[in-house]
Design a protein that fits this description.
Blueprint lengths: L1 H10 L7 E5 L4 H12 L7 E8 L6 H14 L3 E6 L8 H19 L4 E3 L4 H14 L3 H4 L5 E3 L4 E3 L7 H10 L16 H16 L3 H30 E2 L2 E3 H5 L3 H16 L8 H12 L4 E6 L3 E6 L2 E6 L8 E4 L2 E3 L5 E4 L10 E4 L8 E4 L6 E2 L8 E2 H7 L4 H4 L4 E3 L5 E4 L3 E2 L12 E5 L1
Parallel strand pairs: 1-2, 1-4, 2-3, 4-6
Antiparallel strand pairs: 5-6, 7-8, 8-11, 9-10, 10-11, 12-16, 13-14, 14-22, 15-22, 16-19, 17-18, 19-20, 20-21
Helix pairs in contact: 2-7, 5-8, 5-9, 9-11, 11-12
Length: 441
Amino acid sequence: MKEQVLAFLRKYSICEKDVLVVGVSGGPDSLTLLSILKDLTKEIPYSLVCAHVNHNVRRVSAKEKIFVEDWCKKNHIFFESMTIEQYGDDNFHNEARNLRYQFFESVVHKYHAAYLITAHHGDDLMETILMRIVRGSSLKGYSGFSEVVPMKDYTILRPFITFTKDEILNYAHQHKIPYVTDKSNFKSKYTRNRYRKKVLPFLKQEDPLVHEKFLKFSRLLSAYNEFIDGQTKKALAKVYKDRCLSIPLYLELEPLLQMEVIHSILEEVYQDDLMLINDRHVQLIHELITSRKSNAFIYLPNEVKVIKSYEELRLVIEAGEVASYEIELIDYAFLPNGKHLEMIDKTEENGNDICRLASSEVSLPLYVRTRKHGDKMELLGTIGHRKIKDIMIDAKIPIDERELWPIVVDSKGEIVWLPGLKKSKFNKTKQEKYDIIIRYY
């Protein structure tokens, strides 16, 4: 194993000036990796830093941290650690992974390291691929993980990816490498453990070198994914701008690219929580896009709402229900939809973003509020009232924007302006008498 790891390091041009940060739990995989990397400093005198995370969920976690720290002291290896004090996510494993890699990255930056080394091995890759096939994923997801992952300012390397768990354990026993055992790895309540205990033994019985077949499969899918990813980026630039998907342009794409575009959008929205999404969610979005309904929506995990509004589709993260508002309009108001209303002295503009009123014809003070059920408005130049809801539908205002759209009323509740959309009978032209000008921007 040592010779293969040395060849791996040389393949990626690891040299004397490099600092390698190694993620170490204290188990046989990571301690064997750290031990081999320590031995190989005789061949390539790089610097080693051990990064350990105490997940703080088992009573022995603190002892394991001390064990790893003592091992590093005896072997003259820099040691860095963190303890996760509490978890706030419903998905423990996902949050733990995110916090772990955030810590690893901080250690990489602290030591100005070029590489983060982890002990993921061939069995880990098989488990990951199988789990994603069963759960459903993208082409990239089905490939599992790569032996090399370029990050923004460092690279993740996995030199154990060609080895099985048994090979690592045998090496640890032969070379008397001490390690700790996490008993939770044997509990069948965890999905990965069930694959480890029941599925992998069967596959290895069929072919002892099956892990090599999975690695080949992973590399092949990664290569195809790189090609399709390039095509997807081109398609995405065409159909998706400002977090808004053009449905007509989307429907012009090849079916494969349509699915990949949806996956790419979900990756942007979910980032480290992408494991919460599966093929069913992608299909639901596609069905929403191709449905005959002009306005509709679906919910995804983590309070993500997918909204179809006429020829557009958007994904928004809801932080709970938005309360209605009513604000007295004196000189200026910053609105919950991110827009502004401002009293100004003069302007030559005359669009729907400008309103001119005569104070003698309205009841002051003015207010800006959200719409209410049954709201009606007498439009400029027309007879009778129109429902605000119908005005918004005609203007193709997205469903989620309607509830926050500002409505300017006087103190009697009369709607005097629908900013950005329509003017009321109270609006004055530049040639008429007025003493109030409001700008919406």
